[in-house]
């Protein structure tokens, strides 16, 4: 029974995401290493599930280790330069063989997954074609790359027609020129070009890692694209460097969000898409956690946030009607549609009261209270207030550590002094601005 309750809770929590992702376009990149991993079968099942939920899927695959193995078996030497394979005509023939086998294997796996998927007894159509127009990489610093190419144009109109029919579009790392030439393409950059051309809602890249790590070895859950600098790029693992760079460029050229997740972790894709904190690193064009002024639409979220603290006696009980009439005094932190932190500023004469400062218990370790305090102080200065004060029963140390000093009830503005609740016996702390 407990397992069922947890399942029901997860399903309810994920329902807003199910609705939000329906009819959205996701481009997913699976490198050759991901295709060889034992977890690939689970990834296939998750792709089928997403398709059944109405997500429009474009899957771009790589083939680097498979090509390397095939060339080695055929005793064909192949050079690299500037992080690109030099694709001679002889190498191109082997590349085409490998890519054709991978393409048919992915299609067959998607078909095999139907029996165990939500699409049982329904047809999943996987479509492939010459969607990628390419041009030669040419000669760089005297090195002829032969049939190694780069994207010239993506046939987004045709891809979108297939997506509108609920087809899964499968794109291999080969491009074609108007003269009939075939070019070997870099998979990660191809996925970026496809996502940008389609103005996809998401670009999801499967990597060997859980995500981008900070100096302490913890996964960085979110990065804003404009904040990714060369220092961060250089500090990432080699296998993530190109991926993170592509994610940044995709967001800066129209893709809303990019996700770097592990291909080795079962369920990483679903966790990233259907839970609030995800499983990997999200690169966002605009941060999905924002500090902003409260609006009437936030009242329900504020109530859900502060109710537990009211029940514990930490905050004064506020009715819905009172919050609706005072919501313009609030500043909130919204995280992907959820109010995770809030605070209010009530002006009294030349001072302002900081009130109802609260943060959800799952998000109290990332200085959100500090960010809100800074926002309230900025708002108070904009109102030309000389200082702010707070009445608290249990957070005295937190405020004194941030520059507040003990105050006296007698020094409260008259309008606030008349509302003082002697039964709560709150302490007064003040801070000059």
Write a compact overview of the structure shown.
This protein is of the alpha/beta class.
Q: Give me the side-by-side strand order of the main sheet.
A: 5-10-2-1-13-15-16-14
**What is the number of strand segments?**
23
Give the oligomeric state. single chain
Look at the structure and give the mean pLDDT: 90
Please report which band the strand proportion falls in: under 5%, 5-15%, 15-25%, 25-35%, 35-45% or over 45%: 15-25%
Q: What structural class should be given to the helix and strand makeup? A: alpha/beta
**Count, helices:** 15
Largest sheet: 8 strands, mixed
Rough outline: elongated
Give the termini separation: 55 Å
Radius of gyration: 27 Å
Features:
433 residues; alpha/beta; 23 strands; 38% helix
Task: Write up this protein.
With 433 residues, this protein is α/β, with parallel strands linked by helices. It is 38% helix and 25% strand.
What is the topological layout?
Blueprint (H helix, E strand, L loop, with lengths): L1 H20 L3 E6 L1 H5 L3 H13 L3 E6 L2 H10 L6 E2 L2 E2 L3 H24 L13 E2 L4 E5 L2 E2 L2 E2 L4 E6 L1 H9 L3 E4 L2 E3 L5 E3 L2 H12 L3 E6 L14 E3 L5 H6 L2 H15 L4 E6 L5 H7 L6 E4 L4 E5 L5 H13 L8 H7 L3 E6 L2 E11 L2 E9 L8 H15 L4 E6 L3 H5 L4 E2 L7 H4 L9 E6 L1
Parallel strand pairs: 1-2, 1-13, 2-10, 5-10, 13-15, 14-16, 20-21
Antiparallel strand pairs: 3-4, 6-9, 7-8, 11-12, 15-16, 17-18, 18-19, 19-20, 21-23, 22-23
Helix pairs in contact: 4-5, 7-9
